[in-house]
Specification:
Number of helices: 10
Shape: globular
Strand order of the largest sheet: 1-2
CATH class: Mainly Alpha
CATH architecture: Up-down Bundle
Order of helices and strands: HHHHHEHHEHHH
Structural class: mainly alpha
Number of strands: 2
Helix content: over 70%
Number of domains: 1
Length: 233
């Protein structure tokens, strides 16, 4: 049972990272804020595996680790990035609160869907990876109007019931996805270290994994509609 509680504590540490990231955003320390969010992505990618290994659902059946995970995810994937949009004025000033509110409300809807995570390990609708979207907008240096359009597009995608891959549990190309995801995570850390003078080459190379992620998700949606896959290893 101690092992099970340690896994829950590991997940809950994301709450502390959310607090530290919030303080860093308010203090204009964007590198520190995104480093906290990067650490949370690492925790989120590994705590499910640890929970299954520790059989937490069997050993502490009255405590819902999934709910704890959702609370942490909403704070770190949604609230802190929305706060960042406001603090860094990533979008035109008159649209700041509207865009941030749209992120918060759309993801509130997305998190509350009963099929937000499907039984065959997919997310329904854009899975609120606002931390990633906002980080790329920060390092890319696009005009604020372009940032607003990008964020508004992802807000809409939350409501479109496309099934997105759950990277650590996908039954298709899992090994390839996790290996390339690990390389992408290292590139994100490199960009954090380089910030604010991020290499454009590194940034564009790093975008290969998000492009692959979206392409795989769209392809698997076509498979669900009756298109036979070429390879599901």
């Amino acid at each position: 049972m101690i092992g099970a509680w340690l896994v829950h504590a590991y997940t809950a540490s994301g709450l502390l990272l959310a607090l530290l990231a919030t303080r860093s955003v308010i203090d204009f320390n964007y590198r520190a804020a995104f480093f906290c969010l990067w650490l949370q992505v690492v925790i989120d990618a590994t705590d499910g595996f640890l929970a299954r290994r520790a059989r937490v659902a069997e050993r502490i059946p009255w405590f819902d680790g999934g709910k704890l995970d959702d609370v942490v995810d909403y704070l770190t994937y949604v609230f802190v990035p929305a706060l960042f949009v406001w603090r860094a004025v990533l979008v035109p000033g008159e649209w700041t609160i509207c865009i941030a509110a749209a992120m918060l409300l759309s993801s509130g809807y997305g998190f509350s869907r009963r099929d937000a995570k499907t039984t065959d390990h997919f997310f329904t609708g854009f899975p609120s990876y606002w931390n990633i979207v906002v980080f790329y907008l920060l390092v890319a240096g696009f005009p604020s109007s372009v940032n607003a359009a990008v964020l508004a597009t992802f807000v809409i995608l939350v409501f479109i019931p496309i099934r997105y891959v759950y990277p650590s549990r996908t039954p298709v190309l899992r090994l390839f996805t996790n290996v390339t995801g690990g390389i992408w995570s290292a590139l994100m850390l490199l960009m954090l270290w380089q910030y604010p003078a991020v290499s454009r080459a590194v940034m564009w190379v790093s975008l290969a994994f998000p492009a692959y992620y979206f392409a795989l998700s769209i392809w698997l949606n076509r498979v669900d509609q009756g298109v036979r896959p070429l390879d599901t290893r």
